[in-house]
Amino acid sequence: MRTIIASTFMLFLLIAQAQEEKNSFSLDEATAFALEHNYNVINANRDIIDAQKQKWETIATGLPQISGAVSYQNQLIQPVSQIPAEFFPDGVPGTFVEVVFGQPQSANASATLKQQIFDGSYIVGVQATKAFLSYSQNNKEKTDLEVRKAVVEAYGNVLLAQESASILQKDKENLEKTLFETKKVFENGLGDEESVDQLQITLSSIENQLKNARRLEKITLQMLNLIMGISIDNNTILTENLDKLTQAKIDPSLLESELVMENNVDFKLAQNLNEQRYFELKLAKSRALPSLNAFVNYGANSFSDSFNFLSSGQQWFEQSILGVDLSIPIFSSLGRSASTQRAKIAYEKAKTQLTEAQEQIRLQLESAKSDYTLSIEEYETSKQNLKLAERIENKNQIKYTEGLATSFELQQAQTQLYATQQEYLQSMVDVINRKTALEVILNQ
Q1: Axis-axis angle for helices 120-187, 27-37 (nearest 10)
Q2: Partners of 108 in the beta sheet?
Q3: CATH of the domain at 221
Q4: Per the confidence metrics, is the pTM higher than 0.90?
Q5: How far apart are CA 211 and CA 164, in angstroms?
Q6: Counts for the chain of helices (H) and strands (E), in that order
Q7: 50 lies in a domain?
Q8: Which has the closest alpha carbon to 293: 111, 125, 115?
Q9: Helix ranges, 250-321 (H)
Q10: Residue 147 near residue 41 (C-beta atoms within 8 A)
Q11: Taken in order 359, 360, 364, 365, is the CA torsion positive or negative?
Q12: Which residues of 278-302 are buried (b: 16+ CB within 10 A; e: fewer)?
């Protein structure tokens, strides 16, 4: 019994431990996980499969097509025909005899083989499906880049919220200590009430910021979970350190990277649009070409007074047809010409848009390099400013304790320190995000 109880206890302990297991992710691990489980990525993969099926669907229209048909008719009231009586041996001239032709029930079974021999629109359609498949693949690549960028931003925001909460917690503890000492001094008649109130105001502000930081920590983590494609309630743990991650993202050599336009995914998509308009122009032109199709039909008919078509002795009369269809467009009241001209205009617009896309990408690259350079400079500056703000606040803290500084001067130094702390944290996140934005343009 003791063995059973011990085993049961261990089982419950393992289950509880499994339920409390937390998923830990570095930034690279979170990115790799998202590129497999993100909802948009999953649908982008499905779009590629859909494009492949659409390609085969188009190709199949030019391959042999076989169709079958079976029909059955039962003439409840057969039509009557009047024939001159003199056609019959005993007929009276000038009169008519009512005659019913055929049997009331009939059945027909047939099969038809059709083969397209030439159709210009079919050739263009097959070529266009390849371009559409290329578009789906490039769209998947763009989705991956966007997801990667979103993961980096969300991951950085979680670290920012966590670091903010940690720093604000330390600031709160220091303020509480200073406020406690100031209250004791005031209670002993050696201080003024204004100093106590001033510190209380600052402490209340820090407490509100700390509460907000903790709420943001939860929300940003839920956002990261959503981007990664897991439940927003999942207790995800981030293994990166914001400062170390920022240091790893400082890479001045990236600024010297040359843009290979053909690697940029936005340029690829602009090229896809250009190809699409080109094939639309070819399709409009192909409508002026003739189309040729061949077919073979085989079938059989059977007639009876009652439904006995499935019996082995029922007689069936065979029939078969071989033929070709040639369709030649002759005159469309200039409708085809107008359609072709419109397609040509759309193609010319697409070429202009491709040129514009190239210039926009070059501009985006220069802007991204500038932003990345600025983020590194602001990070170095805010790092130095933080040291200075800490030194200023520490000196004012000592002066305030010794009675050489007022509570207002201390409050100013503290406010400056808190603002500099947040600027420093934000500068680290900016370095991470702006490096990613530059990498997306370079497709690295």
Answers
A1: 140
A2: 71, 301
A3: 1.20.1600.10
A4: no
A5: 11
A6: 9, 8
A7: yes
A8: 115
A9: 265-286
A10: yes
A11: negative
A12: bbbbbbbbbbeeebebeeebebeeb
For the stretch 337-370, pLDDT in tens is 999 999 999 999 999 999 999 999 999 999 999 9
CB-neighbour burial class of residue 330 (10 A; exposed 0-12, middle 13-18, buried 19+): exposed
Give tens-digit pLDDT for 29-82: 999 999 999 999 999 999 999 999 999 999 999 999 999 999 999 988 888 888
d(CA 82, CA 70): 32
DSSP state of 296: E
Q: How many residues comprise the chain? A: 444
Of 52, 67, 63, whose CA–CA distance to 119 is shortest?
63
323: closest CA among 133, 25, 114, 50? 114
Could you give the angle at the alpha carbon of 395 between the alpha carbons of 426 and 193, nearest 5°?
100
Pairing relationship of beta strands 81-84 and 96-99 according to DSSP bridges: antiparallel
Quote the CA–CA distance of 354 and 269 in Å, as a whole number.
9
Contact 149, 440 (CB under 8 A): yes
Q: Which residue's entry shows tokens 């309630």?
A: 233
Number of domains in the chain: 2
Q: Which of 431, 428, 19 is nearest to 255 (CA)?
A: 431
- Which two tokens mark 158? 């979680």
For residues 97 and 243, state if they share a domain. Answer: no
Same domain, 112 and 248: no
Of 149, 171, 162, the residue nearest 216 (C-alpha)? 162
